[in-house]
Amino acid sequence: MSHYIYKCFDCESEYSPIGIENSNKYLCPKCGSAKKNQPLKGVLRVLYDYSEFKLKIKRKRFLKFSPGIFQQYYQLWPLKFFKCGSTITFDGLKDSHFDKTLLNSYPTSLLEYQGESLFVFDDTRNPTLSFKDRASILVALKALQLGRTDIAAASTGNAGSSLAGICARLGLNSHLFVPEMIPTSKRIQIQSFGANLYTVKGDYDNAFDLCTEITEAKGWYNRNTAYNPLTIEGKKSAAYDMFLSMDGKLPDFIFIPVGDGVIIAGIYKGLWELKELGYIREIPKLVAVQSNKSDGVVRFMESGKFEYKPANSIADSLNAGAPRNLYMAANAVKESNGESVSVTDDEILIAQKEIAQKWGMLVEPAAAATLAGYKKMKASGQFNSEFKIMLLFTGNGLKDISSLEKSNPVPEIKSPTEWKNELLLKNRLIS
Question: What's the CA gap between 288 and 140, in Å, rounded?
Fold first, then answer.
C-alpha cells in the first residue's frame, strides 16, 4: 500500500497513485480540464499520513535536518524509496546521479534596507540558478521510477533550463516548448544542456497548450506547471528549507513572485504541512506579487472572476495570461490571510538595480518584483518594525541580460591616454 494519495483541489475526490500515475493521468479524472487560455480545473494535491510522520519525527529532531537535502524527510515525497541501514535512497536513483546536497544549503540571509531588516530566501544558486529546480528534480525522479525516458514542458525559460539541466544529469531526454520572445540567455542555457527545443510563435499560453497536445500524442511525461501535480509538490521544499534555515522561527510575511501560481501554491502546501505536523502554530501571510502587465491573480482576487488578458511584462517569468494554477494560488493568499499586489515594470527594474547595488545580488526581474511589492505595501503603511518580512528571490540575473541592459548603458571607450587625462590631470587642475 502506498504512503500517499492524490486528492482533487476542486471536487475533493481521492485517488491511489496507481489510478493516476499508471494511467498517465495528471488532472482529476472526474472534473479535470485544461482549456485554452483558461486556468486548470481539477488540479491534484498529494497527501500523506501526517499523524504517523509526526509520531516518528518530533519538531526538535526535524530541526536538526539541513536545508537543501530533501531526502531527509523522504516519507513526505510521492516517491518509492528503500532503506539500507541508516541510508535512504529513492528507488531508481543511483548515488552517482545526485550529490547529497543538490539545492542551495544556505538559502536565508538577513539584510538591511532603508533602516529595516529584511530576510531574503535566495534560490538563485540552485543547480540551474532558479527556484524551478525544486519541481524539476521531483518530476525527473518520478519519471525514472515510472520508467519514462522523455519529459516535456512549456516554459518562459526557467522551468525549461531547469528541466534540461536535471534531465542531462539523469540521462533523460527533455523537450521544451518556449514562446518566441524567450530571453536569449535562457534559450542558450536550454540548448547548452542538449535539450530538444521547440520555439512556438506566440506567447507562453500558446506553448503550454501545444506541449499538452504533443505529450498526449507522443506519450512523453508532462512537466507542465500545475498540470503535473508534482510541480506544486516539488516547490513545497522551499517552505521546509525556510523552516530549517530559520531554526523554526518563520517570518510574518513572505513576498512571492507569481506567474502561473505554482510557486506560491507549493510554498503554501509546505507551510500547511508544517502546521499539520504541529511544527508551527500559524502560517505566515503570503503576498502574491505580479507585474501589472501580467496580473491575472491580482485581478481575480479583486473581482472573483477570471478574464483572459495577454501578458507582456519585462519580467518574463511572470508572464501568464492564463495563470494555470490560479485557484490554488488565490486559495494560498486567502487561507494565509495574505495579500496580492501588482507593480509596474519600471518599479521592478528599479528594485532589480537596488538589489544589485545595495546587496551585491544579481536577480532577474521576476525575483526583483518581490522588493518592488514590499516597497509599495510599506509606503501604504501596512507594516511596522515588529514584523519579520521575507522576500523570495527565484532566478539569477544572468538569465535575462536584456533587462540589465536597460539600466546599464554601454560605457564609453577611451584610450589609456584619454583615461589618464580624465582621471589624473583633471584632479591636479582641481587641486
Answer: 28
Quick check: 228 and 142 in contact, CB under 8 A? no
Segments of 216-267 assigned E as strands: 221-222, 253-257
CATH topology of domain 108-126+234-407: Rossmann fold (3.40.50)
Closest CA to 190 of 230, 259, 144, 136: 136
Q: Beta strand pairing status for 173-179 and 150-154?
A: parallel
Report the C-alpha gap between 329 and 338 in whole angstroms: 11
- 212 to 90, 98, 317: CA distances (angstroms): 28, 29, 19
CB 176 within 8 A of CB 164: yes
What are the start-end ranges of the E strands in 68-158?
81-84, 87-90, 108-113, 116-122, 150-154
Mean pLDDT across the chain: 94
- What does DSSP say about strands 389-393 and 253-257: parallel, antiparallel, or unpaired? parallel
Tens of pLDDT, residues 163-212: 999 999 999 999 999 999 999 999 999 999 999 999 999 999 999 999 99
Indicate the domain borders of the chain. 108-126+234-407
Question: What is residue 222's predicted lDDT score, i.e. its pLDDT?
Answer: 98
CA distance 121 to 389: 11
The C-alpha atoms of residue 231 and residue 139 are separated, in whole angstroms, by 7
d(CA 151, CA 141): 11
The pLDDT of residue 385: 80
Residue 89: per-residue pLDDT? 75
pTM of the model: 0.95
